[in-house]
Task: structure prediction
Amino acid sequence: MLLVNLILILLLGGALVWWAERFGDHWPRQLALAIVIGDLLYLLRGLTFIAPEKFALVPEAINPDSWLLAWSAEWIPRFGIEFSFAMDGLSLILVLLTLVLGAIAIVSSWDEDNPRQGFFQANILWTLAGVIGVFLAMDLFLFFLFWEVMLVPMYLLIAIWGHEGKSYASMKFFIFTQFSGLLMLVAIVLLAIVHHGTTGEYSFSYFDLLDTPLEQNTAHWLMLGFFIAFVVKLPGFPVHTWLPDAHTQAPTAGSVILAGILLKTGAYGLLRFTLPLFPGASLDFAPIAMLLGVAGVIYGAILAFAQSDFKRLVAYSSVSHMGFVLLGIYAWNTLALQGAVMQMVAHGFSTAALFMIAGALQQRLHTRDMDQMGGLWRQMPRMGAVALFFALASLGMPGLGNFTAEFLVLVGLFAVDPWMTAAAALGLITAAIYSLIMMQKAFYGAPDEGRNLQDFGKLEMTAMAVMIIALIHLGLFPQPVFDLVQPVLDSMAVEVAPISQLQVAP
Amino acid sequence: MMQEAAMALLPALVIAIASLVLMMQIAFWRNVQVSWVLTCGAILFALMALPDNAQLPLQVTPLLIADQYGVFFSILILFGCLITALIARDYLEHRRGENEEFYLLLLLSGLGGLILVSATHLASFLLGLELLGVALYALIAYPERGHLPLEAATKYLILSGAASAILLFGFALIYAALGSLSFAGIGEKLAVLDLAQDKQLLVLIGTGMVFTGIGFKLSLVPFHMWTPDVYQGAPSPVTGFLATVSKGAIFAALMRLFIDAGLYNYAGLMAGLSAIAIASMLAGNLLALQQDNLKRLLAYSSIAHLGYLIITLVVVASLQQPQLAIEAAGFYLTAYIVTSLAAFSLLTIISSDVPDSVLGDDADLDDVDHLRGLFWQRPLLALLLTVALLSLAGIPLTIGFVGKFYLFAVGIEGSLWWLIGALVVGSGIGIYYYLRVVFIMSSKVDNRNATIAPGKLSLIAKLVICALLFIMVYLGVMPQSVMDYLGSVALEQ
Result:
């Protein structure tokens, strides 16, 4: 029930926040922050009731008791559809990330003057609810429902509170994800109908569908349906084009949520559904997927380098970083998969922070053009220092989470395909170039003296501190994350991978 | 026996008697309020008088049957009539002229729909179709002002008349070949007789003409040309009625004919239907992209939706088992009717209290641009239209999604990959123009430029809005009850 409550708190909280709008603008944001933090505490409290040895248990598909938490209820018996939620180490990490970044997103727009504050915050909460639903749903119909529903509040966030090109950006975002989602829906229904054909019963349950025997050809098509939907969200090359527009035009909180959390649903989908449901087809497809990953890493980096718009630069760097996730997933061995998960978390923090800085700059300077910035460090030293930290994290400075992640992906990938590793490693160099250029253009140089700028306040610094500590922790003591995720990876047929004997050194 | 038959047809009888009473009332004592109360009362009474399952199915004369299939669609039709009558009240209050006959025509048209969904004979099929259609001509031309309604009505009259003539010709050819006019009789003759070559040809041409005629009424591509003009010209409540009750009833009757008469055994017919369906999905959605008038936009989108619906007919052939197809068609039509009613109710409600000076020559407020800023001015109205558009686009948590899910399920079960492909592409295109309206509603305008000023809604309007919102969301989240009912609906074969 905890899992359902987690979502319900956010859903009902959204309605409450909307209603609280009538008492003034500051009420909604305080209430929203309280709700997200309350939700987080509720989850943490719930975790203390789980036996510690359960965290090391390999979650088995057939046995929901081997999961950390599981809950299900009948919903639409006509098609064997259930309200079915379950959580393992992977979903736990991502839900934690979602809630932490959700709170940070609310803080990031604290001083922004958004009209209809209540509805704005409500949309943030509803997006979070949708994302958590995606991470927890274990019924494919339910999963699809959350997958689509989280788009609507996100669309509204961009369409109502976005910047100058919001109409185009929000539409593109919605159509890309919705259209690819339809392909996934076809694949889901086809899978369920094949299952119906062999067993005589309709079911959309993940646990039931896992062992559906598929003809090779069917499996390939189905895998592709899921893959396209997830890769659009990831986003992978060449279906990433919605991302720079959406990220740039979204309000700050929207960008933080998009980059920090929403992109991770794509990676999660690949890990949770595409690989376990269609292991054979995925293995056949792995070289192409990895090629797309490498292309994303390099292409994203080159385009990031060419941007003069602060937010667009960060957006393209996301394409580059998420390429590593795709590589890690399809290299398909323990090291690379650990790296991919680590990258999801680390990238969530580093990019969220950069978008928050971009938002703060836009609010203060009314521009995102880096050519009109320069010398900001002297005017806002706290923001400058923070920005330098996250730029370094993003370029893969050893000791921070992103380095651990990318290093592991490269090591894992090397065993599979050295040439691709060599190409992907270029991404690390180019990352240094665009990150440092960003710092140089915006924060170094001679300041424009006419500006009177306000540095980061206490609230913003607190949010930044949380992310800084998280990244340092992930860089220096990554083992807790690995321990949480390892059983999940063990459950995912990793044994077919070429170098399963390699283990992460403790 | 006589009494049972009367009970089984009670809803239609109630509506028929009510229209007579209404006629007398108008002759002796003109009063809109009384007409309105009579109409709503009759519809509610008819809804309560629907036969329960224990007595069903019951064949009443060779012409009509009372069965669960008919009852289900009767509920939809009566619901559509009720909503139309409810929202028409405020709308007509601000229009000049004698408005009592509006309700009379509405009841007559509804009666035609009720007959259509229980028809088991080509004669009753035609009777229902014409009753429905003839009353609609007058309804479309009802407003006194402006030339658009008149143009629309003329267009509809001529084209619909031509379609009926083609339909009749088709009936005649079928009768000439088979010597039977009842659905089941046609089915028997087709199944048993090893037809001579020339007779086979007659039947094929005959059914082809029947489908052409019905294609006009359902506005499927390439018989769709009248749709946008008629949608735009007709007063909003009537457009809603035309889009939902009329099309729903005709489709329900067509499906019964299709299955009872075993028409799905004709491969050529199925290929033609598939082509029509794909063309409707693509053309409807593509043309809707260009529209700046919400009524025209909804007209093209209804072409696409009827195209989607044809999947449920085509699939009967590949499944050889109509149960799932009927279920899908029933659910999709429910979704389509409720959602379209919501969209047109909104158009009716916003047009109700707008002064004539703003409207000019137009009968209604229906430009997409008129809705700019609606979200800030009238949140409840904007919410209704947003949910309706999301439902039309098939976004989860709305009834439209479950309907689309059903279509995917039957289409994939029947391995109709081309149709599924067109459905995916069509839905993808659809998102653009539905969302554009949502975007325009949410954009900010200053109060002076907004066409629609903040204002109060009448109690009835609020009631209708909340009811439609509730149904769209409730059946989107908890569709099992309707699924259960539809699961028990089966056609005699």
